[in-house]
Amino acid sequence: MANKALTTFTNGFLKENPTIVLVLGMCPTLATTTSAVNGMSMGLATTFVLLCSNIVISLLKNLIPDKVRIPAFIVVIATFVTIVQLCMQAYLPALYESLGLFIPLIVVNCIVLGRAEAFAAKNPVGLSALDGLGMGLGFTCSLTVLGMIREILGTGKVFSFTLFPDDFGALVFVLAPGAFIALAYMMALAGKLTKK
Amino acid sequence: MVYFLIFVSAIFVNNVVLSQFLGICPFLGVSKKIDTALGMGAAVTFVLVLATIITYLLQMLLDKFGLGFLQTIVFILVIAALVQMIEIILKKISPSLYQALGVFLPLITTNCCILGVAILVANSTYSLPEGASYGLWTGTWFAFCTAIGFALALVLFAGLREQIELSDTPKAMKGTPIALLTAGLLAMAFMGFSGVV
């Protein structure tokens, strides 16, 4: 039992990492990783929604009729996203401004609905919670790493800590093309390392 | 004149996929062949325009009752219902079109593009060229042009990917990494349009 719990939890970090292996949730990955802090906050917000929605859906899985499964899941997820939205707007306004449109878009993040459908609807609460937490934290890790790469290459800073002088940075990495390019190399590197 | 400026800015300058990062999942998933890309583009255009109109009107209703915080929940339910309804109607009215759009219709519910643009238009936070005012018609036109921009990016990308399939890529880069790299270069090309409007 403990073994299965551990496997479920660590699944989301490497073996089924949402960003690198499953290629899900690309929109927030590319858009919010302009800096390490933004990437990490987005990841943590998504983790919260994943954890809570997985728990609730797993608790309700026997009560929801099969035909209205997807809309029911969407309502649960949207509720938690609204909670995150309102909390961030109240307590973390600067972060709310910089993440902007992508906080409500957590609702259509394929990871959240995907895990609800694939895992929480078929597994007990404990395992679903661990799965949500693992996937969310795996997502947060990849977002933070990508954010760090883009921030260092783009501005020479990381977490607002100046590592290199200002004119080191190649601005393209903070802008749109850089997101695609940085993620491409990150995935290629991860693929190469795991194949060995 | 303003409508022409919105047309240019939504399609080229602020392309929804390549500079605003909305709709990446179908962009990467559906763009392996040009036909499927065109199909997805058509489906998204259809759903996006309808969804924008309905959600804009709903937002006016929500604001009137002070229920603005329900925006996310209401919008996504409306979009899910709309997609379901369109599927049923299309199946009855035009089975050939339904067959052509096929599996893309249900996928559109989780397309960030639809919810994203709906929220942008409802909150009037999209960028308009000078002299334009926010409203239902500019919003709907903006949504239509955004969808065309999405279709354009998708078709261009599909064309590029079809060519990449035939060339010799390093093993680690095969599949998604080289696709992302190509998308990055395409995004760089589209950056050349900034400042046009």
Show the helix and strand layout.
The complex is a heterodimer of chains A (196) and B (197).
Chain A: H1 2-11, H2 26-32, H3 36-60, H4 69-91, H5 93-99, H6 110-120, H7 125-155, E1 157-158, E2 161-162, H8 176-195
Antiparallel strand pairs in A: 1-2
Helix pairs in contact in A: 1-7, 3-4, 3-6, 3-7, 4-5, 4-6, 6-7
Chain B: H1 2-13, H2 24-29, H3 34-64, H4 71-93, H5 95-101, H6 104-107, H7 112-122, H8 136-165, H9 176-191
Give a written overview of the molecule.
The complex is a heterodimer of chains A (196) and B (197). Chain A is mostly helical. Chain A is 68% helix and 2% strand. Chain A contains eight helices and two strands. In chain A, strands 1-2 form a two-stranded antiparallel sheet. The longest helix of chain A is centred in the last third of the chain and has 31 residues, at 125-155. The radius of gyration of chain A is 17 Å and the shape is globular. Chain B is built from nine helices and no strands. Chain B has helices at 2-13, 24-29, 34-64, 71-93, 95-101, 104-107, 112-122, 136-165, 176-191. In chain B, helix 3 packs across helix 4 (71-93), helix 3 (34-64) runs parallel beside helix 7 (112-122) and helix 3 packs antiparallel against helix 8 (136-165). The longest helix of chain B is centred in the N-terminal third of the chain and has 31 residues, at 34-64. The termini of chain B are close together. The model of chain B has no long low-confidence stretch (mean pLDDT 84).
Number of helical stretches of at least 4 residues of chain A = 8
**What is the rounded distance between the termini of chain B?**
12 Å
Name the shape of chain B in a single word. Answer: globular
What characterizes the major β-sheet of chain A? 2 strands, antiparallel
> Tally of extended strands of chain A?
2
User: Of all protein chain pairs, which has the greatest interface, and how many residues does each chain bring to it?
Assistant: A-B, 42 and 42 residues
**Percent in helix of chain A:** 55-70%
Mean pLDDT of chain A: 85
Q: State the oligomer.
A: heterodimer
Mean pLDDT of chain B: 84
What low-confidence regions of chain A span 5 or more consecutive residues with pLDDT below 50? none
Globally, the shape of chain A reads globular
The ordered H/E elements of chain B are HHHHHHHHH
Main sheet attributes: strand count, strand direction, barrel closure of chain B: none
- C-alpha Rg of chain B, in Å? 18 Å
Low-confidence stretches of chain B: none
Distance between the termini of chain A: 30 Å
Find the structural class of chain A using helix and strand composition: mainly alpha
Strand content range of chain A? under 5%
